[in-house]
Amino acid sequence: MLAMDLVERLRSLSPAAANLVMGRALPLIIPLAGGLGIRVEEVGDRRAVATLPLKYRTKNHVGSVYFGAQMTLAELTMGLLLFKLFPPGPYGMLVKRVEADFLAKAKGKLRAVCELPPDVAAELARVETSADGKAEAWVPVTLTTREGEVTTVRFLAAVKKFNEG
Prior knowledge:
This protein is an alpha+beta fold. It has a six-stranded antiparallel β-sheet with strand order 1-2-4-5-6-3.
């Protein structure tokens, strides 16, 4: 995908500028993200970080972050990492299942961190060698506020390598 290639070139010059561009492009790539205020902080080979402010559009009737806004932040953070590792075009990626544990109300700015443990990275890398060109694994994302962890999410992500030619 040309846009991802351009962001990666920019990342080699300035990671902060690449994160800013990616954050600004999110609503164009995924319109649902528009207006939420998601900010991309980091996208590397094993870790992605994004934030979501608590504001009128993200706040529910009890003063915490809506479930849907939390899941959007978590999925986008996981997606940024997997799209970096498996760029759209040669690969396809989708979520097959989601599990979430809500540990506390999200009463402030949320920070989502998606880090690929070595076993998860290895399982997804099987997409290169599997007979059917597919791999899947549970990818963890943790949402925290200044007060601590509020939500843990696991996505069963499936990656497929498309035939070239």
